[in-house]
Design brief:
Two copies of one chain form a homodimer.
Chain A lengths: L1 H6 L14 E6 L3 E8 L2 E8 L11 E6 H10 L6 E6 L2 E5 L3 E6 L19 E6 H12 L13 E6 L4 E7 L3 E11 L7 E6 H11 L5 E6 L4 E4 L3 E5 L9 H4 L6 E6 H13 L5 E7 L2 E8 L3 E8 L2 E4 L3 E5 H9 L5 E6 L6 E5 L7 E6 L10
């Protein structure tokens, strides 16, 4: 059930290639390998043969219709189930009282996951699973949902030599960037960038915590692979050049305020209920931050927050409330720093604690409409 | 939050009458009364003034936009909130740090719930809440989803004098009927039938358990009202004549089998995954029940269940698997009796235990297509 749920993240019942609407099941001496794939992603989950929870009686492969197989497995009573793929293309699933036959598809037609030869792999890095998970969630806030520039639907994973990895994403209005430690295990230390689909990365992040503490990233020109002992996720990189985050981040600022993250989040969640065109207006005054929003003919709201630390001049600017809320929601720190860099220049958000393990930074471009709330 | 969630069951944001997209809030000396209404249903929930959780500072009424009000209340921090409706049509919601104004609507335009004068009430009955709740859930399995015969979208509540109430519903293919005890508190003991919307009854059933042990049904020609101390649900009866359940129930049968409800449910849930056109075929043989289903080009399934008690001849018939599963799922008994009354006559399902408090009975008409599973 568990392994199946994970590999199904890569299976679409609407895939125009019939065999890819199925799950590939392979029984080997080591155990069972379940694989789900679509054009740019493949997920492989392993269940080890241990003689009690899994016993392999015969080796072989079969592809079964994913949705039906999942629905049946989900509804089976607890206990031992026997899966029999010996009758060439029919898979029988049987327990004491149920006997189910599914038309399988010849496994030989299933696209083989490219097992990159060691020679083609350029980079091999070891990353902490939970740090990678939170970095992916942070980057995902700023991935573009429009397909007009494919490169912006991706998360850019940049290695600049050394022991750090930078994840970034941007849709032109907001940008997220995050640095996490990584141990180079490959022979090559040259800088490299890999752009992989943001949605797929987020799907993977959801599984990471269940498969051990560290994950290995293995990259070649044709594939980015994330592996733990029992989970292998292969992603096709997106071709193109990613906008340089460093050149966009404003260096100077007029004001910097520190706020309690949870309070800011709750205030923004309330403010966005009445944010017409999603716009909220932030205004600092006498050491406090006001957040106002308005929907014509319905009402308005005003939130008043204490500022923990203030530096610079008072400011006032309008932002997309939903985007700001998404960013604040993914922060895992108690305090957040917000920098005002001008009316037409993006605000900068950063966790305020000295976070040694991970450093996240977010940009959000203001909206040039003023909300008037009396 | 709690009271609001309940009254919102009667509020549709798409209601063409603008004032009905709102929630009516009335502050009285006794406490707060929240009301939500649509054309055929009104729900009134009360919060009592107790000086700690609720204090009424001034009496009055206002109508607020339901969706916005709900979203804001849901996102408020815990603690005391002050709701101020004194500025004629503006409602202010404020806590220490938030101040929210919603454009209210003059409450005088809100349709008053018809408070039936005592004279017009023909029947007044006291019913156990949890028995009513399970009877509604059982009847709801057989309510028609098609609007072509409005009377079949309802549940028929029949009182025949005495101390029993009969609930029934049918869509022409299946029928559910259930008898529960009721104490007559009115002056009239004449038989009567009230048909009320099945969907609204089911919504009410979801709230019942939170409002005390017993519920009062008060019926007049224009309204059926269910009341507890803090919840009042008013329903407009559906006009028409309900098909008589008693005349449809087959009196003779060729076979009767008793099955374990949970096992039958799980077997049916698996069988329906592969039930093409939703058809499952039931066959008895040597004291066991087989359930087979098939989807062309995908696969087939065969379930094999032990029969606890058998009487009569072996039989075989095809049924709508989803409908049968819905019926079996709402049974709260350990064993179920299934009677075969002929190939073109409905099967009869009944809880097998001697249930003194409630007696449910279900009919399901067979499908005249045979499923061939080799």
């Amino acid at each position: 059930m568990h392994a199946l749920q994970h590999v199904l993240k890569a299976v679409s019942v609407n895939n125009p290639i019939p065999i890819l609407t199925g799950v590939h099941i392979e029984a080997t001496a080591e155990g069972l390998i379940l694989t789900g794939s679509h054009t740019s992603m493949s997920i492989e989950a392993r269940i080890r043969q241990d003689g009690t929870e899994l016993t392999v009686l015969g080796k072989g492969s079969i592809v079964v219709p994913a949705r039906y197989f999942y629905e049946i497995v989900r509804k089976l009573d607890d206990g031992i189930v026997k899966i029999d793929g010996t009758q060439s293309v029919v898979t029988a699933i049987s327990t004491e009282s149920s006997s189910i036959r599914l038309c399988g598809i010849e496994a030989s037609a299933y696209p083989k996951a490219t097992r990159s030869s060691d020679d083609s792999v350029t980079h091999r890095l070891l990353i902490d699973s939970s740090l990678l998970k939170s970095a992916i969630k942070q980057a995902a806030t700023s991935v573009s949902t429009s397909e007009s520039r494919p490169v912006l639907t991706g998360v850019c994973i940049a290695y600049q030599g050394g022991s750090e990895l930078h994840l970034s994403a941007t849709d032109g209005i907001r940008l997220a960037t995050c640095t996490i430690p990584a141990v180079n295990r490959g022979r090559i230390t040259e800088p490299a960038e890999f752009i992989v689909n943001g949605r797929s990365m987020l799907d993977m992040a959801g599984m990471l915590s269940e498969y051990g503490d560290s994950i290995e990233l293995e990259a070649s020109s044709s594939q980015v692979k994330f592996s733990t002992t029992d989970l292998h996720v292969r992603l096709a990189p997106i071709e193109g050049t990613f906008p340089s985050a460093q050149s966009i981040i404003p260096r100077n600022y007029y004001a910097e305020i520190t706020l309690e993250t949870a309070r800011l989040l709750h205030a923004l969640e309330r403010a966005t209920v009445l944010a017409g065109d999603r716009i909220v207006r932030l205004t600092t005054c006498i050491g406090r931050l006001g957040i106002v929003s308005r929907t014509a003919a319905i009402g308005d709201s005003k939130e008043d927050l204490g500022i923990e630390a203030f530096e610079g001049d008072d400011f006032s600017l309008s932002l997309n409330g939903k985007m700001l809320t998404d960013i604040v929601r993914c922060l895992e720190c108690r305090y957040v720093k917000l920098r005002y860099t001008g009316d037409r220049s993006p605000i900068v958000l950063q966790p305020a604690e000295g976070d040694r393990e991970s450093s996240a930074l977010f940009l959000l471009t203001p909206v040039r409409t003023a909300v008037q709330v009396s």
